[in-house]
């Protein structure tokens, strides 16, 4: 057993925006079609064709926002094809994801109905790569204007009198790649033009999000911050995926060695470096931190499950995924002065999913359970921490075994989330709480015998939240013995 020490400072800092806990749903594989939006004949509770068991599961974790329609798909999506009578909607090819035919049966109205059912905020990523300024401008008018106008009339004809007042608005996606292969300098000009005509209508100001860097492309961030006036953007995005091996052979979601587990966790921790460096560039141009860093795509990306369509990005979700989610969310919490929105890719049946479905069946992944635990941090005040962690060494490389964040909610309750990445050693953690009044501690844990363990349709509850009774109050100190490969949430009241 190893030992570690932690100091939690009770002086509250900034609020951890609940929007850090956002999700992403693209027209990709079985996320929208056969995920959220199912065939009429499927024997599950539905509203229209929206699958309500999936909705209920996501409501339980207080999903704050949902990004749509992509991803790469967003930059070839033409919103007018997805409104009006479904039988009359034109079809298109989804060229990025499997070359399948998109029938446009899930469009603007269906997405906003889904968000209403989820009680979450929509985050629409609009087409810059193959769209026009006018097309984007009209979409905003259709969504957000209540006065007399052509788009208001069209929306009314399509059965929705009131505007939806969408606020999160992505101006392009990955404009350096699938969103148009632009240079940063070119994109800045495009952004300024598109954003000008994406209007703020009465009662419906947009939170415009600049399509940001690919991982460590700091030039992109610098160019956007230098070239776009601060009052023309709410946020600037960055995308980073944890790929266990290489983009050519990403590695299996379920069969991997300890070396590969270690490398994956090491790559996951790189998010801290990325966020720190992008934030430092943003600080130069925006010292008051008015612009949010929006990590609007993140998560583990492995090879697809054998036998599934390579263009559909269907992967299983193991205990390793739970630890990636928990570590990343801790990183976001600790950087929440700047990181104020994030979206895990992708909610159902794609990449690091929360929910997997197979016909009528549905299961909650280990990642889902982390989001369930971590909802305690939504809109709570960040507490600063100092951690002294033992190392976890493999093959001459090391990472800290522990990863932590802490917050205090509006009732005064403190939550400390701790990941022990070491797969075989417990860690005894001694915590000093400065200026925190508390009487007792309770806890919950996510763990399993192997880091490759998964939930399956045959055994959907193998990995779930369990009671943790390894924490004690000893005088003013908090002690906890953290099981190997575990995510623990402590609650101090
Ligand atoms: O999430 C899958 C894809 O990854 C998205 O479509 C794209 O934005 C990113 O490259």
From TrEMBL:
Residues 296-486 form the Alpha-L-arabinofuranosidase C-terminal domain. InterPro entries: Alpha-L-AF_C, ASD1_cat, GH, Glyco_hydro_b. SMART domains: Alpha-L-AF_C. The keyword Hydrolase applies. The keyword Hydrolase applies. It comes from the Bacteria. It catalyses: Hydrolysis of terminal non-reducing alpha-L-arabinofuranoside residues in alpha-L-arabinosides. GO terms for molecular function: alpha-L-arabinofuranosidase activity. Keywords: Carbohydrate metabolism, Glycosidase, Hydrolase. Its EC number is 3.2.1.55. GO terms for biological process: L-arabinose metabolic process; polysaccharide catabolic process. Belongs to the glycosyl hydrolase 51 family. Homohexamer; trimer of dimers. This is non-reducing end alpha-L-arabinofuranosidase. The gene is abf2.
């Amino acid at each position: 057993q190893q030992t570690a020490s932690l100091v939690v400072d009770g002086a509250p800092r900034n609020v951890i925006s609940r929007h850090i806990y956002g999700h992403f749903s693209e027209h990709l594989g079985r996320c929208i079609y056969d995920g959220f939006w199912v065939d009429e004949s499927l024997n599950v509770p539905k509203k229209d064709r929206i699958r309500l068991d999936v909705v209920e599961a996501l409501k339980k974790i207080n999903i704050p926002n949902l990004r749509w329609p992509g991803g790469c798909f967003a930059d070839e999506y033409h919103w007018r094809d997805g409104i009006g009578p479904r039988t009359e909607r034109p079809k298109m090819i989804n060229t990025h994801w499997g070359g399948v035919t998109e029938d446009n049966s899930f469009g603007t109205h269906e997405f906003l109905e889904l968000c209403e059912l989820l009680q979450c905020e929509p985050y629409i990523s609009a087409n810059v790569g193959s769209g026009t300024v006018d097309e984007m401008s009209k979409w905003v008018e259709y969504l957000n204007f209540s006065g007399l106008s052509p788009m208001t009339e069209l929306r009314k004809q399509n059965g929705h009198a009131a505007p939806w007042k969408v606020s999160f608005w992505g101006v392009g996606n990955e404009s350096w790649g699938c969103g148009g292969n632009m240079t940063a300098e070119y994109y800045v000009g495009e952004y300024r033009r598109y954003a000008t005509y994406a209007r703020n209508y009465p009662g419906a100001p947009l939170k415009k999000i600049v399509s940001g860097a690919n991982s460590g492309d700091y030039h992109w961030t610098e160019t956007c911050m230098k070239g776009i006036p601060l009052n023309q953007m709410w946020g600037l995005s960055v995308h980073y995926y944890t790929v266990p091996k290489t983009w050519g052979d990403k590695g299996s979601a379920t069969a991997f060695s300890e070396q590969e587990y270690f490398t994956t966790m090491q790559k996951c921790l790189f998010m801290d470096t990325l966020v720190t460096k992008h934030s430092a560039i943003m600080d130069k141009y925006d010292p008051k931190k008015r612009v949010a860093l929006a990590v609007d795509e993140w998560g583990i990306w492995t090879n697809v499950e054998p036998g599934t369509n390579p263009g559909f990005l269907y992967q299983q979700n193991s205990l390793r995924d739970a630890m990636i989610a928990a570590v990343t969310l801790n990183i976001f919490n600790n950087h929440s002065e700047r990181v104020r929105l994030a979206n895990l890719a992708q909610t159902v049946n794609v990449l690091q999913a929360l929910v997997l479905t197979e016909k009528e069946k549905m299961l909650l992944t280990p990642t889902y359970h982390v989001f369930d635990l971590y909802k305690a941090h939504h809109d709570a005040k960040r507490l600063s921490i100092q951690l002294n962690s033992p190392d976890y060494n493999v093959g001459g490389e090391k990472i800290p075994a522990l990863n932590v964040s802490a917050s205090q909610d509006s009732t005064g309750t403190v939550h400390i989330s701790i990941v022990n990445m070491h797969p075989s050693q417990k860690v005894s953690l001694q915590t000093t709480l400065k200026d925190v009044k508390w009487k007792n501690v309770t806890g919950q844990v996510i763990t399993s015998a192997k880091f490759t363990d998964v939930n399956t349709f045959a055994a959907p509850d193998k990995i779930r939240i369990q009671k943790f009774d390894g924490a004690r109050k000893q005088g003013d100190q908090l002690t906890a013995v953290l099981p190997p490969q575990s995510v623990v949430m402590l609650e101090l009241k």
